[in-house]
Every structure is written in C-alpha cells, then in structure tokens.
C-alpha cells in the first residue's frame, strides 16, 4: 500500500518589535580581533525579542496568520506539534507543552527538536511527514522560535563583540497535512556528529554555563573555528540540496525558489552560485532580519509567498546547516498556493 501524500500547505511568521539599525551596535563596538571577519559583517537591520516576551508568545503571534487563513479549529485540532526554540523559556524542558496550551491544542504528539539548529524547520518537516504518512494523524504544526538576539547577544558586555550585530529574532509556524495540495517531494538530512563539539559558549573567566558568575556568555568563536565553519557550510548546504534534486530528477538551476538559513552574505552568495541560481530566485532578507537561525527558512518562505515570489506549481527547495556543521538538511515542496 502506498503512503499518503503529505503537504506543507501554509506558513506564517512574526518579527518582534521595530527594526533595530546597525548604528545601535556601532555605539557599543569594542576592539575585537574578529571585527573585520566576513562572518560578522552586520545586516542593516534586525529585530529583538522584547524584555518580557517569551518564545511561546512569539510562536502564538506567528500562528495568528494560520488561524486567520485556516480557522482556529485547524490549528487547535492539530494531531502533532513539533517545536524548536533557540533558547527555551525554561532550561530543563522544551517549549512544546506551553505552546500547545497557548494554541488550545491537545495533540497526540509533542516533540521538541533541539539538534536541528538552523535546519530545524527541515527536520521538523521530515518528522511530521513520517508521522503523518504512517497514520499518526492528519495535521501537524512545525513551530520555530529564534530568541537569542535580544537576550544573549544584547547583553551589555556581549553587544560590544562583532558577533552580536548579526543575529535577529523571529518565529514561524508551518501547517502540514495529509493531502496532495502542496506535497513535500523529498527530504535529505545528514548528521555530522564529529563537529558537535565545535560550537561552544565562552565566559571570561571560564565556567560552565549553569554555574554562577558575573561574566556574560557568548559564542566562543576563533579564526580557526570560523574557517572550519565556513568550509563546512559552503559544502554541506549544496550537498544536501543537490541530493534532493538528484532524486527528483531536477536540475538545480530549474528550482523556482531557493530558501535557506542566512548566517551571512557570503554563504548566501556561495550557495546560490553552487546551484547556478540567479539572486532573484534565492530568498534573502539578511539586511532586514539578520541571521534568524532556525526561523530563517520559514520566515523567508512566508515573506516570499506574501511578496508573490512563488506561484502554484513552483518547486521550492529549502536547505540549511546547523551550528558549527553538525547537521544539515534539505527539503523540496511543490507549492500549491496559499488560501485567501
């Protein structure tokens, strides 16, 4: 018996607050040996989560677009909730339970995916597709929240660093159903566990992240680590994207819309050149939103749909790599159009 078709039928997103310009960080800039590294060339704008705003708040506000277009009962009645939060509101558990409650859901499945990182939306689609095609339900939500920019990178001592000006906050929710409306054509995910220890939190003086101390934590970048991450990202995203294209018998240059995470401008340029795609077919909101980490793909897809950059019947290819290169994934969808 053939498995039923599973579709990504819609996505909705949310950006918190007003855009924050690059000048905001320029006023705090300190001497930083990584200041001129291409990895940290700042976007013109980004958004920050508000001081009292939670990841659950952000997901609820993102889901409002789905509720408006599909009805509250579709969202509340979803059988599966898959979430990823850059910084869970509580350190001991993920945000799935709180998000389910806020959206009025009583799902059979609640899964928090922490390892997906910047490729979490692709991983969420993979899990949702597998569960729905096996009969676990009819509808799934894939909810992604990025909330580190206004919480970690805007700490008084951290915002002086070059790395602080790049991230932005936002959230998005994808609606996945058993249908052939907007079918998920293929998904490729790869784990590179040997690189899992290359992304670290640093403190001056050193301590474990949970130990008390006055120092504020930041990402422990060095020139050597950055060189490795650049090499891995430049290789991994095209590899998983091309693997999906190969199985579908699709030439990469024939992809109608390419949607990726967006760590910096260099990755965006290199990825589209690797697939021989013109800039207009690769969604790029870096200068408006900065590095959105795991929320980048769904927020960019929502923007592209709203801006009319993708039409019914178009093939959308999504791809990303996570952290320092320990995970990568790609997914292709034949877009079926958005409900009015």
UniProtKB/TrEMBL annotation:
Annotated GO biological process: fatty acid biosynthetic process; secondary metabolite biosynthetic process
Pfam families named among the record's database cross-references: ACP_syn_III, ACP_syn_III_C
Listed GO MF terms: 3-oxoacyl-[acyl-carrier-protein] synthase activity
Protein name: 3-oxoacyl-ACP synthase
Transferase found in the keyword field: yes
Key words, A-Z: Acyltransferase, Transferase
Organism: Mycolicibacterium helvum
InterPro entries: ACP_syn_III_C, ACP_syn_III_N, Thiolase-like
Domain Beta-ketoacyl-[acyl-carrier-protein] synthase III C-terminal: 245-335
Annotated Beta-ketoacyl-[acyl-carrier-protein] synthase III N-terminal domain residues: 115-193
Biological classification of the source: Bacteria, Bacillati, Actinomycetota, Actinomycetes, Mycobacteriales
């Amino acid at each position: 018996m053939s498995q039923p078709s599973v579709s990504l039928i819609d996505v909705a997103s949310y950006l918190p607050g007003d855009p924050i310009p690059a000048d905001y960080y320029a006023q705090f800039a300190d001497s930083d040996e990584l200041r001129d590294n291409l990895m940290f060339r700042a976007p013109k704008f980004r958004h920050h989560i508000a001081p009292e705003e939670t990841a659950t708040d952000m997901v609820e506000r993102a889901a409002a677009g789905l509720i408006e277009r599909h009805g509250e009962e579709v969202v509340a009645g979803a059988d599966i909730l898959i979430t990823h939060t850059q910084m869970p509101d509580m350190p001991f558990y993920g945000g799935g339970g709180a998000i389910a409650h806020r959206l009025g859901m009583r799902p059979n499945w609640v899964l928090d995916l922490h390892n997906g990182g910047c490729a979490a939306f692709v991983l969420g689609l993979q899990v949702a597709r597998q569960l729905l095609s096996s009969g676990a339900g009819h509808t799934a939500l894939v909810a992604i929240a990025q909330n580190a920019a206004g919480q970690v990178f805007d700490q008084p001592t951290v915002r002086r660093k070059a790395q602080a000006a790049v991230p932005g906050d936002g959230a998005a929710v994808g609606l996945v159903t058993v249908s052939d409306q907007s079918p998920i054509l293929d998904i490729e995910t790869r784990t590179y566990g040997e690189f899992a220890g290359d992304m670290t939190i640093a403190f001056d003086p050193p301590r474990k992240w949970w130990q008390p101390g006055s120092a504020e934590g930041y990402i422990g970048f060095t020139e050597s680590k950055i060189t490795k991450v650049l090499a891995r990202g430049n290789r991994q995203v095209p590899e998983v994207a091309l693997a999906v294209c190969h199985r579908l018998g699709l030439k990469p240059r024939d992809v109608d819309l390419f949607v990726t995470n967006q760590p910096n401008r260099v990755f965006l340029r290199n990825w589209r050149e690797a697939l021989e795609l013109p800039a207009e077919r690769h969604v790029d909101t870096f200068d408006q939103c900065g590095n959105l980490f795991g929320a980048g793909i769904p927020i960019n897809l929502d923007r592209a749909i709203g801006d009319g950059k993708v039409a019914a019947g178009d093939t959308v290819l999504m791809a990303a790599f996570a952290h320092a290169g320990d995970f990568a994934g790609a997914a292709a969808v034949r877009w079926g159009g958005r409900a009015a």
